[in-house]
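The authors assume throughout that readers already know how a fold can be written as discrete tokens. For illustration, here is how one protein appears when written out as sequence plus structure tokens.
>
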Amino acid sequence: MSPNLDSPVQTQMAVALFKSPLGGGEYHGNSRMERKSTGRRRVFVQTDTGCVLGMELDRSDNAHTVKRRLQIALNVPTEESSLTFGDVVLKNDLSSVRNDSPLLLTRNFMHRSSSTPCLSPTGRDVQQRDQSGPIEILGNSCVFAKTRLLVKEIVKAIKNGVEPLPVHSGLGGGYFFRNSRGESVAIVKPTDEEPFAPNNPKGFVGKALGQPGLKRSVRVGETGFREVAAYLLDYDHFANVPATALVKITHSIFNVNDGVNGDKPHSKKKLVSKIASFQQFIPHDFDASDYGTSSFPVAAVHRIGILDIRIFNTDRHAGNLLVRKLDGVGRFGQVELIPIDHGLCLPETLEDPYFEWIHWPQASIPFSEDELEYIEKLDPVRDSEMLKSELPMIREACLRVLVLSTIFLKEAAAYGLCLAEIGEMMSREFRRGEEEPSELEVVCLEARRMIAEREILSPKAEVDEEEFQFDIDYEDAGYDFSPNMASEDFMTRNPFQFPFGGGNCRTQLFKLDESIEEEESEEEETSFNYVPAPAKNVSESKLSMSLKNITLGDRKQKHPSFSGTKPENGDLARASSGHRSANEQLPVSSSFLKLADMNEEEWRLFLEKFQELLYPAFDKRKSVTVGQRQIQRLGTSCQF
């Protein structure tokens, strides 16, 4: 049974860090090979309150022995708990766990007692038990070569007495780590100091690691690996994302909260280990909010926008676009853009993205030949496999969002849409306080409906009533919609306003029925190979023709997201109109559909239908855009 991710944390426990002997050497180059040959793997287990324990696994180890070591070392209760590795709940078999992987221990029942605190070992204990370096990179990919050089600089500086500095801006905990000259070279963000995490130093606490965070589709403690994913996906440094890695890092500067309210940091600093994102610090002059955006290079805006589309960035605001002036002969007024803060990308469900650049004039300029060539070479399946290899803890739902958004980008660019048009098709609209699905979501809803109808018409459509265990659950609002799927008039009058598969649609968000047909226990895994969508003159089924009848400017599938319900996160969940930044207003985001509840065969069929439906949607978007441009030209031509 999956844990209830919305249950409140009753007591915030102090985070302690204990590290088992991992052997000498800063990067463990030789010990990696020894572990590989003997079947031993090093892992870092983190509790949902932030405690970190490094340990080595033998082939005979299982989840029970890992929990037992945690209980002995950290004095934390492990009963009624689950050991998870991304989507996988680990039991007896730990073969899926790779070397240097972070695991998470979550409590199934969130009631905690302050009488069983998480005790920190003394400095002497740490010295005796841990012979490893103060910074351990989780992963051994060659792409982290630059990060390894930065780590060496920082370790040398720490030994010389150069202390890191806390970052005072933002909602989460962050720290500038410096080199021997006192220059900031990296910014470190511990996962247990994120907004709402147990050890947040700025008062934004209240949830355990693994629960829904600032965005419901991004869990607390999981923004760090998303930062790394954005860097890994930025092939050839195309968008200029700084080098980023996931690390286990030990220092006394990190925050550890005491008490329920998280407002009593430790008075006596001890060495504390954290799982954190580690990103190269780029010296800069401004951020985009302090500089005229019209002077930004078209290519830089396009490249950052292409990355944002691929990773479905839900928080690209001006504050996380750094601006650096370029000095030199002939470079007067030229600037370079550096995108940072990608912790809210790759959500587990489609929601409303935020693209600061969407109304910049550069975004309306067509892609260059080089940009189109780069987009054409993108392979969503290769990207997904790469992330699973480099970040094995990443969830399948995130990978499906990546695949979907990359296909959407490729087809839209090939059709001739510009960056602004693509971003607008992905963005939702708010009208009269009600949220409407984006054009991208409308296409997805239609594709899901077509798949569901295909299953209904199939004689094998026998759906089990077992609920799909998807950790980020949705509240049951008690709505019951059961229109006649066979009614052609209903579909013509109300396109997309009915549930899929004839199931019981729970809310007005038209969320998908979670009762999905179980696959055979010995089913063969179906691999999806990306194939470009057919040409524009594809023969469209009667069902897909309904997509052409919908007016994209008047999408009628709405949802009263702010009516009669109290925002979950107080001021951070206020109702707003128009686009929002996560640093400003964050209403509880809606989910019109999920991608993770499809089995492999359903996912393959869904992507086929999705690609078939894209060109009618592109036609409609192009006609809407042309109309808007004509109106705009008429309006400006009258202003003398």
About this structure: The mean pLDDT is 74.
